[in-house]
Amino acid sequence: MGRRHPLVASAGLAVLLVGCLGSGAAHADPVAGAALYVDDAAAGCSDTGPGSAAEPFCQIQPAADAAAPGGTVRIAGNDAAYAPVTIRSKGTADAPVRFVAAAGDGSPVTVRGRGVAAVTFDGAQYVDMAAVRVGGARTTALAVTGSQHITYRDAYAESTSTDATSVVAVDGSSSDISLVRVHVSQVAGRGFSSAAGARDITLADDSFDDQGVSAVGTTDIDLAGDTFSTICGDAISLTDGTSGSVQNVVALTGGTTSCSGTGTPAEITVDATSAPQVTADYNAVNPLPAGTDYNWAGTAYATAQAFGAGTGQGTHDLDQTDLTIPVLGQPAEYSPLVDSGDSDAPGEQPTDINGHPRVDDPLVPDTGAGTGHVDRGATEFQDPLTVSGVAMGSGYVGIPETAAARISNPWSDSLAGLTYTFDFGDGTTVASTTGSATHTYTQATTGSGVQVVVLVDRADGTRMGGADVWHQVVPVPDLAATVGCGTTPLVPDAATCQYDVDSDPYAITGDQITFGDGSKAVSVAPLSGTLKHTFPAPGTYTVTQKITDTGGRTVTETARATVGAAFVSEGPRRLLDTRNGTGAPKRTVGAGGVVRLKVLGVGGVPSSGVTAVTLNVTDTGATAAGYVTVYPDGTARPTASNLNFQSGQVNPNLVTVKVGTDGYVDLYNAHGGVNLIADLEGYYTTKAIKDTQDMSALAVVAPTRVLDTRSGTGARKGAVGPRSTTTVTLPKYTRGGATVAAVLNVTVTGATGSGYITVACDGPNPPTTSTLDYRAGQTVSNLAVPCAYSGLFHIYNSAGHVQLIADLQGVYTDDWANSGGDPSARVGGPYVATTPARFLDTRTGLGAPRRALGANGTLTVKVAGVHGVPATASAVLVNLTGVTPTATTHLTAYGDGSLPGVSNDSLTAGGTRPVLAVIPVAADGTVHIHNAAGSVNVLADLEGYFG
């Protein structure tokens, strides 16, 4: 069989004809090659007129009757359908008669019939109809009778008939009929049928929706590159001695309609009388699960492999075992349908159903045949080269910005010769050959902004595509940056600083960070990030970030970084007892005497990296009233005191003291003779230790009473007995894995005899050290720092019955609090030890008026800026002393907020008592000290601060 071509093979001609309407006066009488016009919406249309552009026909029929060989009937598309038409026109091979769609109101040209075919070719010859939709209501849409050389193309044909009627019907006396690039839709019956006797029919690059093709006794019917989406199979049926070919066809079932009433015929059926005269190959078939690919000469074949083996046909077919054909049969990238057809198949067209040319997909191997490239089915997969978007940065008034076309180019096409036209939405249009363009907006946008559009044209002037984006333009913001620093107990002498520069339309020319410790400035490249820095010594440093940009702007931001030491709970363990020679010679310490106590490398304290130790210091057996000062060895003795005592008393006080450079601390006794005892409670280090989980930082909390046996708070109500242990549970936020130790002010009152208590998290029972010694009837307090894993600690009472009180001032937490391992834990800060210095003495007017603090009176004392305490300090460590109160009282130290229901220093009338206190620093850099009763002079000596 030779290849037959329709009268007009190019889909582009229809479009060309639509856009090239003549504007001159029409001839009054039709002549060969003349153009006739049809426009039922034209005000001056007339079916008896000349059919000129100025006075067109209202309907197609008079134009069809008047058309001469070589003539063209131009039909305007309007929203109303045209009446059915019967075409009997006779053109010639060299001068066919053409019916084409022309410009109208933008609607497609539609002809509809009810009871009769929309378009009937009756005895017509050499007629080409393009882009004219036909529709039949319960009837055939397009009928061909006794006609030859008819081409119907680039159109839609549909019927609503529910019987056996065909959308397109060709009778047995017609020949050389071509349907090319036609979308055929039918509810029932057939999409196309040809009767016995019909000859030379081409169905190429058509799509058939729901119903298929039937050819009975037809000579030379060629189906090439068609796509069938049927309901119950039966896409193609060739019977009664039909001859021809079926190639490059895609057939699949669409939807899930039940086929129980019709059965599931094969997608392609060729009966025994036709099989010897039909060629089938390069098809792709997906039948229903219960259906088959082929029924050939009465034998059903469920797969292409079986079909090929049984008939020798379809050796290049694809079926359900090769792929699942996508909906509508349209190929996608890498689909087996691509570049796998026979380009030389009879009737195959150079363009697909959409008028697109055949193209070679470079990403898919060529598995087809013939001299060109063709995909199976009606749709040719096209080069996916597209304009996918427009990229723009942030828009600022007065700052040039660049718009760039985003090109999706999977096939790696050459982009040479493309031109890009950018419309910036403010009246400015810029042409470019590089794919980008720069523009400066002069004013800010409002609402959703401006629409920026790019249109891309090929070298031949055809449009490749376009894209748009809505773009906001705002005034240039001020240059701004933020910097902040934090520490972790694991590396207490280092800070990690996070910096960030706000969006800057200008380029950053300089971004340097200095750390305030004399080290070299560090230049940072990213606009945001983190920077870790190790400082040479504990303290609070000013970290400064300075940024400059090409706009000539400069901004400087600062942050305070406090680095110091991490606390390690160690003990309680006795390091000094002059009564038995532990840590110093066995003898009382005389007036003016100094005990040098080695602490580094002793009792679990490392031999290096330790900045301070926490000791519970106790005086006993004093022969006269006096005081003790604890300070770093090798430094001048400060005027501050840590213990004040009377003759014969036993007084403890917790002391945190810097360690001398030689690893010693000194204990000075002012008057008389006295024995001194010192128990280790912990130490502060700037170096990592072996068990890093023990390194912690202090999280200051609002002072909270966690134990009071007088009221039943935290334990059973009532005095505790001798040799008893009371277990105390701290607040919920301390019970996670991050809590290492607690800071507690512990008070005993109402004792029935003399004894001591020991506050610890574990250890021997009875313990070998004491936290607080008491006498019968005495109320006395001391600071304790027991380990408190999971929020638990214990208080051991040695003798007699006594009431116990404990006030929580802070908790030490490890790195779990910083890293989020314990979400409920409070994050702590490092400790910076200072040289002991007095900052409050109401006897002399230092830090407050020169007068005793009266009953229910409160002192507000500035600590920020005093002896190096920064404004960012969370708390200060203070040795707080009440001197000769006129009545039994207690002192309470606190930061912001109202007076808490706790106490720090319990005092008897006429006595003098120091106690170590962790005092939160208020937002204004002050601390508050409240006196409960009588009047009392108050002293406060700074020991250090917490970051």
Descriptors for this entry?
about 950 residues; mainly beta; 16-stranded parallel sheet; ten-stranded mixed sheet; 66 strands; elongated; disordered N terminus
Describe the fold and architecture:
- It is a single chain.
- With 947 residues, this protein is mainly β.
- It is 3% helix and 44% strand.
- It is built from 4 helices and 66 strands.
- The longest helix has 8 residues.
- The N terminus is likely disordered.
Q: Gist?
A:
By secondary structure, the protein is mainly beta. It contains 4 helices and 66 strands.
Structural class: mainly beta
Number of strands: 66
Strand fraction: 35-45%
Oligomer category: single chain
Helical content (DSSP H or I, runs of 4+): under 10%
Q: What's the shape?
A: elongated
Q: What is the CA–CA distance across the termini?
A: 96 Å
Largest beta-sheet characterization: 16 strands, parallel
Number of helices: 4
Q: Give the C-alpha Rg.
A: 50 Å
Low-confidence stretches: 1-5, 7-29
Can you give the mean pLDDT? 91
Write the layout of secondary structure elements.
Elements: H1 11-18, E1 35-38, H2 60-66, E2 72-76, E3 85-87, E4 97-102, E5 109-114, E6 119-122, E7 125-130, E8 132-137, E9 142-145, E10 148-159, E11 166-170, E12 175-186, E13 190-194, E14 199-204, E15 207-210, E16 213-216, E17 219-224, E18 227-230, E19 236-239, E20 244-247, E21 250-253, E22 268-270, E23 278-281, E24 284-286, E25 294-296, E26 299-301, H3 304-311, E27 386-392, E28 395-396, E29 401-408, E30 419-423, E31 429-432, E32 436-439, E33 450-457, E34 463-471, E35 473-474, E36 481-488, E37 491-501, E38 508-514, E39 522-523, E40 528-534, E41 539-549, E42 554-563, E43 566-577, E44 594-598, E45 610-620, E46 626-632, E47 643-645, E48 651-658, E49 664-669, E50 675-685, E51 695-708, E52 724-729, E53 739-749, E54 755-760, E55 772-774, E56 780-784, E57 792-797, E58 803-813, H4 815-819, E59 831-841, E60 858-862, E61 875-883, E62 889-894, E63 905-907, E64 912-920, E65 926-931, E66 937-946
Parallel strand pairs: 1-2, 2-4, 3-6, 4-7, 5-8, 6-9, 7-10, 8-10, 9-11, 10-12, 11-13, 12-14, 12-15, 13-16, 14-17, 15-18, 16-19, 17-20, 18-21, 19-22, 20-23, 21-24, 22-25, 28-35
Antiparallel strand pairs: 25-26, 27-29, 29-32, 30-31, 30-33, 33-34, 36-37, 37-40, 38-39, 38-41, 41-42, 43-50, 43-51, 44-49, 45-48, 45-50, 46-47, 46-49, 51-58, 52-57, 53-56, 53-58, 54-55, 54-57, 59-66, 60-65, 61-64, 61-66, 62-63, 62-65
